[in-house]
Amino acid sequence: MSVVLQGVRKAFNGSPILAIERLEVPKGAQKVITGTSGSGKTTLLNVIGGIVSPDAGAVTVAGTELTALSEPARDRFRAEKIGLVFQTFNLLQGFSALENVLLGMLFAGKTDRARAQGLLERVGLQDRMGHHPSQLSGGQQQRVAIARALANRPEVILADEPTGNLDPKTGATIVDLLKEICRESGATLLLVTHQPNVMQSFTDVTDLKDLNR
Predict the structure, then answer these.
(1) Global pTM?
(2) CATH number, domain containing residue 163
(3) Number of domains in the chain
């Protein structure tokens, strides 16, 4: 299994958000977690990504139990093994597309300019590498974010509403691209969304309310 959650509990201000007895995502799977706004989807991804620690339970990603690691060790693991794609792109405005991908590599302690350029070419931005985010469309910015997420050859990609700021046509293109690249690299894709058109493009869809017990 690529991702395993066992007995995970998380609450904020005394209100339960997550109560998951068990969640398993096989290696190479492409899975969607859906649910209403505020249901805890982002919290779930943050727990799997080691950004937020659960109040109880175990989180294992790529064979490593994150809940047993120190915070610095979790940060290193996330940089090396987990790719993150956000709804708001989270690109650094003062840097070019190529520099944003290289900076993503730097967090793992290494940079590979040729790989960064190759990834941007793969997502169709071969003529936009020197452009800053403000010079790119929303769809192009998300393509940069996908290239950055893949920069360190992660085993797991976590995508949090990656089409939320895009029009339906562009969003569909981005989802197709993300799925295709994950298949090529063998990475596991776990995507959260509440958009029906995104859910319809996946065969493995689970509502968060069915995981929470």
Answers:
(1) 0.94
(2) 3.40.50.300
(3) 1
